[in-house]
Amino acid sequence: MGGRMGHGVDRDADGGAAGGARNGAGRMPGRQQGMAAVEFALVVLALLVVLAAVVSYGALFWAQQKISYAAGEGARAALLESGLDAGLLAGMGAGEEGGAGEDEGAAAAGASAGCAAARQAAGWLAVGCEPAVRACAWDPGGDTRCVSITVTYDPAGWPMIGTLRSLAGGGARTQGWIPGLLAAQATVQVEEPLP
Length: 195
What we know:
Strand order of the largest sheet: 1-2-3
Order of helices and strands: HHEEHE
Largest sheet: 3 strands, antiparallel
Oligomer: single chain
Radius of gyration: 34 Å
Shape: rod-shaped
Number of helices: 3
Distance between the termini: 109 Å
Number of domains: 1
């Protein structure tokens, strides 16, 4: 059955015409090899763009978690420092006539200590920190004082974020899905309400 069939067409072992899509050695012709290389390059480029996006978003999520942790640590330090300062002032015999101003001083000391602790907890991230001492939102009468620690970070300096923005076209199109500023806030009550 193999070999020449009398019609002048050579058949290979599985019955197909020899020399059709492949040359005699089982390789694709030169034109097909070039197309395969172009297709491979396009697929690899698309996969690299997707990989860059995944890594960039992972970095953003990591940075957001890091600054949330830093804000919490700052609030914890503010609470501990303001309690320590208020205890020292009370131990030194602070009378009732000077109590409100000294409580404000203890809260302010806690706020500055809170930002120092937040920057330390953020590690190598160059974060901004804004402490605020004010009446607690959950106490409309305003008898209690709260310290809020707000930590911010601008991820624009990261090379991967810049690359992702440029691949996406930059400008206003990326504002909705690539944040320009990451922020976290933590609030603690630093003193008990007055009786």
